[in-house]
Amino acid sequence: MEFKDYYATLGVPKAASEADIKKAYRKLARENHPDLNAGNKAAEARFKEINEANEVLSDPDSRKKYDELGANWRAYEQADRGPGGAGASWGGPFAQGTGGYRTVTPEEMHEMFGDDDPFSDFFHRFFGGSTAGAGAGRGRAAAPRRGADFESEVELTLEEAFQGATRRLRLEAPGSKTKTVEVRIPAGVTDGARVRVAGEGEAAPKGGSSGDLFLRVRLLPHPRFEREGADLRTHVAVPITVAVLGGEVPVTTLSGSTLRLKIPALTPSGRRLRLRGQGMPTVGAKDGRGDLYATVDIAMPATLGDEARAHYEALRKLEQS
Q: Which domain covers residue 178, as residue numbers?
């Protein structure tokens, strides 16, 4: 029996973290998924290998057993070839692990590949039960299929993202009555974020759990503010006299309040000044807030009276002297 190098299958080192394994699995599963590679037998075989590797490495108990097995593989291989042939049985079905990350369930694998066993003899021997041979482990009862997830897009203004928002959605499913769901979108949500509404996806047959509803957030452009992470950026008009001599100018924040921004003397156009803690909230952090950065735009006077002109003329003579 051939030893399966699950780490090599996922392209991760043996010391890879759980997060690294999950990331590698997701990437490879997307690339080789049968839905995206119709009729591609090589991709189909690769997908089965990737799913099998993830079945073992994503579960802490099974991964520990696998690492121990790898260190003693030759001894198990020789025992397997000895009298009886089953001396290398590892025992304990994989389904009794601690529940690692799994995207493709056995039921879903059956739907994709039918009765064609998606797992290798190696997997069945050591992680699919104590009975040797390909086909062992098929007797495990498949969990009821979970309903599919639904995804929809929701548009938010920047003010709604700042304060948090509520959306009332009408959901329709085949064979089901239309229902209204109220979804609370948290303050600080970012563009492209997905808000999960548990159990509001497709209903599952045969007693399985319903899927989830995901709302993908799209933030609408704002006429005065731009968002960068948790920070906000805006422009503030500063009279030329204040820019030269220093002073204060009003700044309206996204929340609608008006603050006084201190302008140092000799502030050039384009300088950015910070208002600490006046940016976007941070999702899940009660007091977390970004900053507001105001870019100075020197404002020229709209008109120039005789007295003001005389002062500017005097200033020009002073500069030329």
A: 150-219
